[in-house]
Amino acid sequence: MKAVFHLAALPWIVALAAAPMTARAQDEPPFEVTLDMDNDGRMDRAAIAADSDSGLADLSIYLAAGEGKLDPSRKPDFVKKALTQDRILGLESKGKGSLAVTSCFGCGANKSWDTTLTIVWRGGKFLVAGYSRDWDWNVQKADGSVETTLGGCDINFLTGKGTASKDLDDGKPVAGKFVPIALADWSDDSRPEPCEF
């Protein structure tokens, strides 16, 4: 009986695994966290969810929204549309009013990377204060061999410094001066060069 059930369930498991990631992402609840981003002593709220039309992740920030249930009629103070097209893994407070958005592409597959974008409030606006990315990229070559590219980067836009690693080596300082980027202006094109592979 168990074997029959397992065989009957197999097509459903395969169908779920093959479903497009954006279709499943739309069904996932939004990530939400409270923190004092603007350091005014009142709790703010950040939420991120996949847009139902595009599947891209939109970030909404509500200043002085409190810790209770959010009034559904309240409009966010800031919205960053299409923050990422990758799958959101987490949204968390990292202390001192910083917000970390973690996402992944491939999520452990042969071609995958994960990123963390750190957001802060400084000088009256939201800024990208940090960006880190780790990748594991496997490419099947014509001769049947597999070429693997491993690496990572960690850029702190507030200090202007960063590190990058290749293969399994430890991260080494990278040349260049990095400056904070307004969250409103952030896109994949803003990604620092040491974070490309």
Q: Roughly what percent helix?
A: 10-25%
Q: From the alpha-carbon coordinates, what is the Rg to the nearest angstrom?
A: 20 Å
Question: In angstroms, what separates the terminal alpha carbons?
Answer: 50 Å
Tell me what portion of residues adopts beta-strand conformation.
Answer: 35-45%
Tally of domains: 1
Uncertain ranges = 1-28
Shape: globular
- The number of helices is 2
User: What string gives the helices and strands in order?
Assistant: HHEEEEEEEEEEEE
The overall strand count is 12
Output the structural class: mainly beta
Q: Averaging pLDDT over every residue, what do you get?
A: 84
Task: Please outline the major beta sheet.
Answer: 8 strands, antiparallel
Key structural traits:
12 strands; mainly beta; 2 helices; single chain; 8-stranded antiparallel beta sheet; 4-stranded antiparallel beta sheet; 197 residues; disordered N terminus
Structure characterization notes:
- Mean pLDDT is 84; it is low at 1-28.
- A hairpin with a 2-residue loop joins strand 7 (111-122) and strand 8.
- The chain has 197 residues and is mostly beta strands.
- The chain starts with a helix and ends in a 15-residue tail after the last strand.
- The protein has helices at residues 2-18, 21-27; strands at residues 31-35, 44-50, 57-62, 78-84, 87-93, 99-105, 111-122, 125-140, 146-156, 161-166, 172-173, 181-182.
- It has two helices and twelve strands.
- It has one domain (2-195).
- It is globular.
- The strands form two sheets. Strands 5, 6, 7, 8, 9, 10, 11 and 12 form an eight-stranded antiparallel beta sheet that branches. A four-stranded antiparallel beta sheet has the order 1-2-3-4.
